[in-house]
Design a protein that fits this description.
The protein is an alpha/beta fold and 330 residues long. The protein is built from 9 helices and 17 strands.
Length: 330
């Protein structure tokens, strides 16, 4: 609904551990174009299952309350909080050159919203809005490979094949000469990775000669496996974020004798190798261009209506849900 001064919308809030609700919101529409702002009507959003599950269950450590904030978050950790960062919509108000454009924005689950024009990215014409919700995950995968610096012919293992891990494996497999092995105990990942052209195995039973190992399982024992797979002078990139979970590691033996390198990758900062030449907007634009590949649709294996989100998020965030990306339809 619309009044002379505002749009009336709705937003999803997490109010307590494992509980959320839909709340009304008013979006001021005065002076939108003059301010260089845009009003976006959401078409689709997506649940970033790893991070949003931690938020939904109240597992964000107090030490990370500020670093874990997303760009247009409202409320504060632990609760109540409006959280999310994978939103695709259509510009319904703003400067003339933005009108009716399909855009991606790092915005929570909300039916419509107003942001500065600089906060949105146009979707490339060959990227359908239904797939555009993967942009934030693709940006994370791109940054991980920037941190990993894979080389032509590298032998690469990716441990943990959620959306981000699968995207890392897909990107790495497109580098000439690479041998990429995706490792995940969930047998459902076999068909998903096959559709992406990536070899899958349920466990790490191959040689320990990898030039590069990327760990994205979110499980501490997966990182120990990653250390065991790296060859001499091998590189291990840790993408998992554990919240308040302890991560025990055995750092004797091969870790020292093989002179392994263990580095973290986190999307909030651009890789040191690219930062002198790239900014966040350019990195996101690259991620959107990479979504032109139709095979990536296989990563969206769940969807539901916006008004069902209070119930569906509890299912999606369950440890055994099997959901890769849950798309929310408006």
């Amino acid at each position: 609904m619309t009044s002379a001064a505002c749009y009336r919308g709705e937003a999803f809030w997490i109010r307590e551990p494992g509980q959320g609700d839909i709340r009304p919101v008013n979006i001021d529409r005065t002076g939108v174009a003059a301010a260089g702002d845009v009003v976006v009507e959401t078409l689709f959003s997506a649940v970033s299952r790893g991070t949003e599950s931690l938020v939904f269950h109240g597992a964000v450590p107090e030490s990370e309350y500020q670093r874990m904030r997303c760009p247009f978050q409202e409320g504060a950790f632990p609760f109540p909080v409006k959280y999310g960062y994978a939103n695709v919509g259509r510009v319904i108000e703003g400067p003339d050159d933005w009108r009716n454009e399909l855009v991606f924005c790092l915005y929570p689950h909300q039916t419509c919203f107003r942001v500065p024009g600089s906060a949105v990215q146009r979707l490339p014409r060959d990227v359908p809005p239904e797939r555009g919700v993967l942009a934030a995950n693709m940006e994370t995968a791109v940054n991980a490979l920037w941190d990993a610096s894979p080389r032509v012919g590298d032998r690469i293992a990716v441990i943990g094949c959620g959306v981000v891990g699968s995207l890392v494996a897909w990107l790495a497999s497109r580098i000439p000469g690479t041998r990429v092995q995706a490792i995940d105990p969930n047998p459902d990942r076999r068909d998903t990775l096959a559709a992406l052209g990536v070899s899958w195995s349920a466990q790490a039973d191959g040689p320990d000669d990898h030039d590069l190992v990327v760990h994205a399982s979110g499980q501490p024992e997966g990182l120990q496996v990653a250390l065991s797979l790296a060859g001499v002078e091998g590189r291990i990139v840790e993408m998992s974020w554990y919240g308040d979970q302890a991560v025990p590691l055995t750092l004797g033996g091969a870790f020292h004798s093989r002179r392994l390198s263990l580095v973290s990758s986190q999307v909030g900062r651009i890789s040191v190798f690219q930062a002198p030449r790239w900014n966040h907007g350019e990195r996101l634009a690259l991620a959107l261009r990479l979504l032109a590949a139709p095979e990536l649709d296989v990563l969206i294996n769940s969807q539901g209506a916006f008004h069902d989100l209070p119930e569906s998020l509890a299912r999606v965030a369950a440890p055994d849900s099997g959901v890769l990306c849950h798309r929310v339809c408006y």
